[in-house]
Design a protein that fits this description.
Elements: H1 2-21, H2 23-31, H3 51-67, E1 71-76, E2 79-84, H4 87-96, E3 99-100, H5 105-111, H6 120-130, H7 136-140, H8 143-157, E4 166-167, H9 169-185, H10 198-215, H11 222-225, H12 229-257, H13 269-274, H14 282-312, H15 315-329, H16 338-343, H17 345-357, E5 364-367, E6 372-373, E7 378-379, E8 384-387, H18 389-392, H19 396-399, H20 413-416, H21 437-454, E9 455-459, E10 465-468, E11 470-473, E12 478-483
Parallel strand pairs: 2-8
Antiparallel strand pairs: 1-2, 3-5, 4-12, 5-8, 6-7, 9-12, 10-11
The protein binds protoporphyrin IX containing FE.
Keywords: Endoplasmic reticulum, Heme, Iron, Membrane, Metal-binding, Microsome, Monooxygenase, Oxidoreductase
Function: May be involved in the metabolism of insect hormones and in the breakdown of synthetic insecticides.
Pfam family, one: p450
């Protein structure tokens, strides 16, 4: 009995201390508008359900936040979040809150302190060191790889000509994997022709477990997760992926220590990181390479696949892209060069409009570590900040009454002059934005240029989506293709 009394007293003291430490959070929460919350549960019930249900809930919640003026609080379990749909406040959040929210911690077991998830003190030092390898001149050396892999993709798609609808995403993601492996670590994996390797199986398995953990509240505490068989499977598969990259790093480092990289021409990211003054440990190198290959693959592949879906049911815009390609390439079937890619202005607008309508990174979550002043409230340290680009990108307030329509000319320079810098943020904003955006844009243009010179695409419009970390269409990226007579006829 005495023991129970002691435990009870300790629990009460702990609770009082917990409430006291979080007083600024409760004070903020008192003043902030709220919608759709329940006693005790707060807003947690909105985030329960399968990936499709979850997206619908978030959309409904966002509509209600919009009707409240674009700012609202959310209690998810004991964590307080602020959701903002106002570009001014979003700019303040993305420029001042550089720490990732604790929901990213599930990725940390896998990606360690790679840029994507690193705590801000480590991130600052490493981002400064890694940034130069993403500069435009270096990225442009990879254009040849984009073109070669785009050609392989076009050849592989020949098996679908004249067939029924098929899911084009799996073809494109294999192509992007070949691109990121070759440019990040010099490995020619040929995933396009050999998609089933132990490494890729392990990688997919880890991703699906992390995704499941994100959306199943009971799997989130480590103590509970470690009791399930998923913990063991996750560890085994993370070990396989780490072993693969460790081995590539070890071999490259041996080569470097034996006299540097003497070969002429293009260097991959790993060689560039090894040649830097900032001496990374083997573990840090693995974490950076894994983060780059993971952050750069599905994102880019999804945007390419969504672009094909959109052009497949917007014939006029598809013909405009084809005409632009014809003007650039004439009858030549050469691979796209830097000059060619720079001339693809209409295709670039199509890509931007695709990323607006189908924002593949739908939510960005940060955490305040010091006070941050928004337009109407000051956030204390310890508040989660949720930015929802996929909601903002369809806001009628920001994009007008036709916000749901596909219109690439929104991105003509004359139509973009008055746009707020945070109205369109597919690559996020501020110093912790996407480091690979230039790489991504060039790769996407190159792949699409090759595909759309070779094939005419048809598709039906889609209206069911789900969140699995990224935004996916429920039926898949279903298209059908027919061959154009010549590359550009
Ligand atoms: C269309 C393609 C892409 C999209 C839409 C995209 C989007 C994003 C977004 C929204 C973020 C910020 C996420 C957050 O704060 O939660 C991000 C970060 C990042 N992206 Fe991308 N990305 C793309 C392509 C790439 C490519 C091709 C690479 C590498 C080759 C890459 C590497 C990274 C890395 C390393 C980060 C973390 C940056 C940091 O925290 O300093 N991304 N990306």
């Amino acid at each position: 009995m005495f023991v129970f009394v002691i435990i009870f007293m300790v629990a009460i003291v702990y609770y009082i201390h917990f409430r006291h430490m979080r007083k600024p959070l409760y004070e903020l929460a008192e003043q902030m508008p709220t919608i759709g919350d329940l006693p005790v549960l707060g807003h947690t019930h909105w985030f329960i359900g399968g990936p499709e249900r979850l997206l619908q809930n978030i959309q409904q919640l966002a509509e209600r936040v919009d009707s409240l003026g674009g700012l609202c609080k959310l209690w998810i379990g004991p964590s307080l979040y602020v959701v903002s749909l106002d570009p001014e406040d979003v700019q303040k959040i993305l420029e001042n809150c550089l720490e990732k929210d604790s929901t990213y911690k599930f990725l940390r077991t896998w990606l360690g302190n790679g840029l994507f998830v690193a705590p801000v003190d480590k991130w600052k030092v490493h981002r400064r060191a890694v940034l130069p390898i993403f500069n435009n001149r270096i990225i442009e050396d990879y254009i040849e790889v984009f073109g070669q892999q785009g050609e392989v993709l076009a050849q592989r798609l020949a098996e679908q000509v004249g067939q029924k609808e098929f899911d084009v995403y799996k073809y494109i993601t294999s192509c992007m994997l070949d691109i990121v492996f070759e440019t990040a670590m010099g490995e020619k994996m040929d995933v396009q022709n050999n998609p089933d390797t132990p490494y890729l199986r392990a990688r997919n398995c880890v991703m699906s477990i992390i995704n499941m953990r994100l959306f199943k509240a009971w799997l989130q505490p480590d103590a509970l997760f470690n009791l399930t068989h998923y913990a063991k499977i996750q560890k085994e598969n993370i070990d396989i992926t780490h072993k693969f990259t460790d081995e590539v790093v070890r071999k490259k480092k041996e080569l470097f220590d034996a006299g540097g990289f003497t070969k002429e021409g293009r260097k991959d990211f790993l060689e560039l990181l090894l040649s830097k003054d900032a001496k990374f440990t083997n573990k840090e190198l693995r974490e950076h390479i894994d983060s780059i290959t993971i952050a750069g693959n599905d994102t880019t592949a999804l945007v390419v696949a969504y672009t094909l879906l959109l052009l497949g049911n917007h014939e006029e815009e598809q013909e405009k892209v084809f005409k632009e390609l014809k003007d650039i390439f004439g009858d030549s079937d050469r691979l796209p060069t830097r000059e060619d890619l720079n001339k693809m202005e209409y295709l670039e607008r199509v890509l931007k409009e695709t990323m607006r309508l189908y924002t593949v990174v739908p939510i960005i979550a940060r955490k305040t570590v010091k006070e941050v002043k928004l337009s109407t409230f000051t956030l204390p340290a310890g508040v989660g900040c949720a930015v929802a680009p996929f909601v903002m990108h369809r806001s009628k307030k920001l994009w007008g009454p036709d916000a749901d329509c596909f219109n690439p000319d929104r991105f003509l320079p004359e139509n973009s002059v008055d746009r707020h810098p945070c109205a369109f943020i597919p690559f996020s904003h501020g110093t912790r934005n996407c480091i690979g955006r230039h790489f991504g844009m060039l790769a996407m243009k190159s792949i699409l240029a090759t595909m759309l010179r070779t094939y005419k695409v048809t598709s039906r419009s889609i209206n069911r989506f789900k969140i699995e970390i990224l935004l996916f269409p429920v039926p898949g990226h279903m298209i059908s293709i027919e061959r154009r007579n010549t590359k550009c006829n």
